[in-house]
Amino acid sequence: MNMTVPDPAKPAAAGPASDPRDTVELFAAAAAHLVEGVAARHRVIGSGAMEQRAEGARVQLSNGRSVLDFGSYAVPLFGHRPQHVLDAVREALDTMPTSTKLLANPYAARLSRRLTDAIDPGRLTRVWFGLNGSDAVEAALKLAIARTGTPAILAVEGGFHGKSMGALAATHDAQRRAPVLGFLGDVRHLPWEPDAVARAAAEAPFAALIVEPVQGEGGGRFLPPQLLRRWSDDAHAAGAFVIADEIQCGLRRCGAMSLSVAHGMQPDAVLFGKPLGGGVMPLSAAVCTEELFAPLRDDPFFHTATFSGHPVSCAAGLAALDLLESGPERFDAGGAALAQGLGALAKKYPDILVDTRCAGLFGVLEFAAAEQAGLAILEAGRRGLLVAQCLTAPAVLRMLPPAAVTEEQLEQAFDILDTCCLKVQRRTVR
Ligand SMILES: Cc1ncc(COP(=O)(O)O)c(C=O)c1O
């Protein structure tokens, strides 16, 4: 086949916006062809500039400014463009970036060994790889339903598991569920009560309980370990599987590699995503017991996907595990400074902040009202700090700094938040 080879001296046309005219044109394209409301929000937060280049905790904008990134959907846990991950990705790109799917894929095999050794060796021994977190959720739910023959699951009030159909079924977000409710199957969302699982089991059988040990999108709420253990015991006693969704809170974001394993829940699957690809590549995983994985033993093609086990993503995953295993103390130091800064804000603004909480590199500011958090998030963006909002808890602002964050960057971030809180306070008093 005759293919036209692009001129290597010319940069690729799809690169970042490099001059202000590009930016205007690209915002117009986004508004016309992407989701218009999201494009408008991007324009406000970036004050008309676009993201252009990133390094560690900093993102450079197209207008020459830079911002600190404590958001990014909790993905860049190691900072943007960590060298070790970039090197691994480049090596995979230069060797075997696309799997034949008919021959064995060394990257996926190696990562499955490393991941099962790291999480719960000897118990969680099987891995299914996806790209997005919801891929891992879909896989785990499908395996549990197939294995038990029971098309019903339990999930938790405030829980978020993604927006593809199966994942959305487990997600407790009435607004997003409503338009497709009839398609979402048999899911009961449990209140945070110790006997909730036992009561549900007495009413009707279920295939699995799916739970986030720390609810991310639901407002950065930490479920008590004894509640999680009780629910897990009751689900197992009812013959159901326990799926721990650690897509946001796992891999040391909240301290442990796996919170559900550390809490003694004996999960049948732990789900990972977001930073699993080193903050560079899309990668998710359902790390499962032999028992939960049985439908794939009976039919190896029961659940497959074209890009499952993608070599470049798995190469990035191997590098991410290197980073997770080599420097836990960096995570601890960042977490301690984050907790201290949050405590200081709580003391200074008791009239607008109803709570601050922190686990590892997951910090939460809970405002008295949703408009206050909204104002603080927009104001922080304008002043050079990106933080995360919560989909179903709009009064909450999440701070998700990378482990690579420096002391100075954390100080800058808290200076900005201090100014934002002051602005919110003044507006509230008036
Ligand atoms: C706990 C949890 N589970 C699942 C998901 C879905 O992941 P994704 O958006 O990558 O499909 C998310 C995303 O925010 C999440 O926080």
Automatic annotation (TrEMBL):
The keyword Oxidoreductase does not apply. One of its GO terms (molecular function) is transaminase activity. Transmembrane segments: none annotated. This is Aminotransferase class III-fold pyridoxal phosphate-dependent enzyme. SUPFAM superfamilies: PLP-dependent transferases. Residues 1-18 have a biased composition (Low complexity). Keywords: Aminotransferase, Pyridoxal phosphate, Transferase. It comes from Actinocrinis puniceicyclus. Residues 1-20 are annotated as: Disordered. Belongs to the class-III pyridoxal-phosphate-dependent aminotransferase family. It holds the Pfam family Aminotran_3. It comes from the Bacteria. Its cofactor is pyridoxal 5'-phosphate.
